[in-house]
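User: I'm preparing a small set of examples for a lab meeting where we compare how different chains pack in three dimensions. I only have the primary sequence for this one, and I'd like the structure in token form so I can line it up with the others. Please keep the answer compact; I'll paste it straight into my notes.
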Amino acid sequence: MMLPPEVFIDALIYSNLLSLLAIGLTLTYLTLKVPNFAYGDLATIGIYVAFTFNEFYSLHPYLIPPFAFITAGLVSLASYILVFRPLWKRKSNIVTLMIASIAVEIALRSMIHIYASALGLRRRVSLARFDEPVNIAGLELPSVLLATTLTTITLVCSLYLFLNKTKFGTAMRAAIENPYLASTLGINVEQVYAVSWFLAGGLAGVAGLFLPFRISATPETGWELLLKIFAASVLGGLNSIFGAILGGYITGFAEVVGIYLLSRPPLNLSTAYRPAIPFALFIIVLLVMPRGITGTDWRRLKKILRGGEG
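Assistant: Understood. Below is the structure token output for the 310-residue chain.
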């Protein structure tokens, strides 16, 4: 069955943003090896940065990504310096770090609520009016499709070049892979981690900026997205930055295309079940391949599924 073009477009836009978010979450996990429950709120910060610059400075949303990147990046960096780094230096266990990330999440979400209230925002934030169609070779495409695709390609390529073609990127990969060995070689591991958290926050801010083009956003939007981001990151493999890209696209397309198919005959399910799709995918991944796509021994898994090896 052929998918309607609008379903494919929605899936691609959503997957672009989910991939950016999954990359950022993976970056924070690779440093301290702790799930960052505050990560979704960094995307919400991007939403309100976009609204603020557009509403008060009449800046077009497509010109705001650098501001969203820097603002969310600085908030992420502050959370690392003020909360996570001191706990990490005290050799706190994963439970302590997870509880700390939940506390940071509650604090960030509360501050976003206060900010929205101070602006008098008693309605949902939407930038859908800027999603104007663009004619390319006779095809009418949403401008946000082009914007998110180009932004994702640019950021992913820049991250690849940064990690693989610069001295600091090489030092960052070394520090993430083996921080103790890297420190003995003179690499400033704390500085590397700080940059990682800044980049992760920046990616979330940029992704968040584009969310109001397709959904009506509130201060709760980032929290509502969090488990979907986790699903994408775990699917790709929490130890692989570029596996997160794959996880983001698989999860995004599974959610959008999945609910379209499930809402049609013969099932005729309500679209309200859409959030259940990434959660179900999350559970399946944890049961079948807990290390994600990039961390799975596919030959061994194939043997297990055939019953050839226990």
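A couple of notes for your slides: The radius of gyration is 20 Å. The CA atoms of residues 21 and 204 lie 5 Å apart.

User: Perfect, thanks.
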